[in-house]
Design goal:
- It is a single chain.
- This protein has 470 residues and is an all-alpha fold.
- The C terminus is likely disordered.
- The protein starts with a helix and ends in a 10-residue tail after the last helix.
- The chain has 3 domains: 137 residues, Tetratricopeptide repeat domain (Serine Threonine Protein Phosphatase 5, Tetratricopeptide repeat, Alpha Horseshoe); 138 residues, Tetratricopeptide repeat domain (Serine Threonine Protein Phosphatase 5, Tetratricopeptide repeat); 84 residues, no CATH class.
- Helix 2 runs parallel beside helix 4 and helix 15 packs antiparallel against helix 16.
Length: 470
């Protein structure tokens, strides 16, 4: 079954499943949704959201909104994604769905990491990790969370913690055969091993990742794994093997239009040729990479290439060209820094607004709980007043019955004795006591009758209850 068929089947099952099983069924969607092309992601996310809006099932609508946010996250429309995550998180809180909240926290954390806010990203990742691990409903999401935390720890040089989290990511993704995170967890374990000088172990991880990518016929995974293995050999100064693998990865990426990755391979080959003083080959591959970088306007890659070209021309004693490329390197790098600063300001604003929304959601939730409590108290007070009114009315009617029975006591007793053909004193006394003790059951019967009458009247003509509103 293809990934598209898996997603389509999972969405159809989710539409008809009991509400209590929504989270478990949704986990299959998140496992395979990331493999779909952009157009198919958009089509299925929007179609499911429209269905959920029409069918008015609150929990499924919340998951549909989250899936829509997931689509925007994967196509890097982060502001819209955060907005949808905030809205769906509030709904999950209202519906008391802990897994839904954890999914929102996971992708919000991933977005914050993309924006460079490591502290918030790690905090929210732990929140998601704790719940996803406890529920065990979504191994793929838990793997994604662990992978995110592992990469943060790797960047902070916490290699032992990074290793631990990469292992969690691998083991959890293996449970559902989610090779996407299995491959990247192996890459992470290889990088950690390199930093810890465990060379043989690092090589084993990179080779295992490449084998897994081949088994699952994922060209992106194959090219990425070959590139990681090439970097390994370059670090170990086996430049011949590093060159062979880099060329292999470059060919796959060029053929499949993985342009950004192809530029990376060109830069790596340029660095290898520079180490070997193969100037002409270095110039050729770097100019090729520069053309691709300028075509897709990836400025960080552009200035990296210009710096390497400057070094080559300096080594060839062509100082004019060396200076030319060095000036472009500085110019483009300054542009990138200015753009990064502007982006960081915009990202900080988005994060601030998202966090404010989160705080407002908490306040609204508390206010809602307080309002519900007060409305309950109000209803209880109304019920007590109704009961008191009914009780008073019942007692008044019972008193009336008692008076009537007192007035007609002698005829009633006389009639009863004639029926029993007896004039016994003790029987007469017993009948009087029966009349007295019957007043309590009569009172209860009248109360029940009046109460049923009030309830029936309210059902037929409901009066609006004045309640506190949020």
């Amino acid at each position: 079954m293809t990934h598209l068929e898996q997603v389509r089947e999972s969405i159809n099952e989710l539409k008809t499943c009991p509400v209590a099983d929504t989270s478990k069924h949704f986990s299959r969607i998140t496992t395979f949704f990331k493999y779909l092309p952009k157009d198919e992601k958009s089509e299925h996310a929007h179609a499911f959201y429209q269905w959920a809006e029409t069918n008015c099932e609150p929990l499924k609508l919340s998951y549909a909104k989250f899936l829509l946010g997931m689509y925007h996250f994967t196509v890097e429309e982060f502001e819209r994604a955060l907005q949808l995550f905030a809205e769906s998180r509030r709904q999950f809180e209202d519906l008391d769905d802990a897994d839904g909240k954890a999914n929102c926290a996971l992708l919000t954390a991933a977005t914050y990491r993309t924006f460079g806010n490591i502290d918030l990203a790690l905090k929210m990742s732990w929140e998601a990790y704790s719940q996803l691990k406890q529920s065990a409903n979504n191994p793929s999401a838990l793997a994604a969370c662990a992978n995110n935390m592992a990469n943060i720890n790797f960047e902070l040089h916490n290699y032992d913690e990074a290793r631990s989290m990469f292992l969690v990511a691998y083991n959890e993704s293996e449970k559902v055969e989610d090779f996407y995170f299995m491959i990247y967890a192996l890459h992470g374990l290889g990088k950690v091993s390199m930093q810890q000088n465990k060379v043989a172990e690092a090589k084993e991880f990179f080779e295992k990742a490449l084998q897994l990518a081949h088994e699952n016929h994922t060209l992106l995974g194959i090219s990425n794994s070959i590139t990681e293995l090439a970097n390994f050999y370059a670090t170990e100064n086996d430049l011949a093997e590093a060159e062979r693998l880099s060329r292999q990865a470059l060919a796959i990426r060029e053929e499949n239009h993985f342009t950004a990755g192809a530029i990376t391979n060109c830069i790596k080959l340029g660095e290898i040729y520079i180490k070997q003083s193969r100037w002409e080959e270095a110039l050729h591959v770097l100019n090729k990479g520069l053309a691709m970088a300028e075509q897709i306007k990836v400025k960080p890659k552009i200035y990296q290439v210009h710096l390497l070209l400057s070094k080559i021309y300096k080594a060839k004693n062509d100082l004019g060209k060396s200076l030319y490329h060095y000036e472009i390197f500085h110019e483009v790098r300054e542009q990138v820094q200015e753009e990064d600063n502007a982006r960081k300001l915009a990202d900080a604003k988005i994060i601030f607004e998202a966090e404010q929304t989160k705080k407002e959601n908490i306040i609204i939730k508390r206010q809602k709980q307080e309002i519900e409590k007060k409305n309950t108290e109000l209803q209880e007070t109304i019920d007590e007043l109704t009961l008191a009114r009914v009780s008073r009315k019942a007692k008044a009617l019972t008193l009336g019955v008692a008076i009537m029975m007192f007035i007609f006591e002698d005829p009633i007793i006389g009639f009863s004795l004639r029926l029993l053909s007896s004039h016994n004193y003790w029987l007469s006394l017993f009948l009087k006591m029966t009349i007295i003790f019957s007043l309590s059951p009569i009172n209860r019967a009248i109360e029940n009758y009046l109460l049923k009458k009030v309830i029936k009247k309210k059902k037929q003509n409901p009066e609006p209850l004045v309640q506190l509103q949020a």
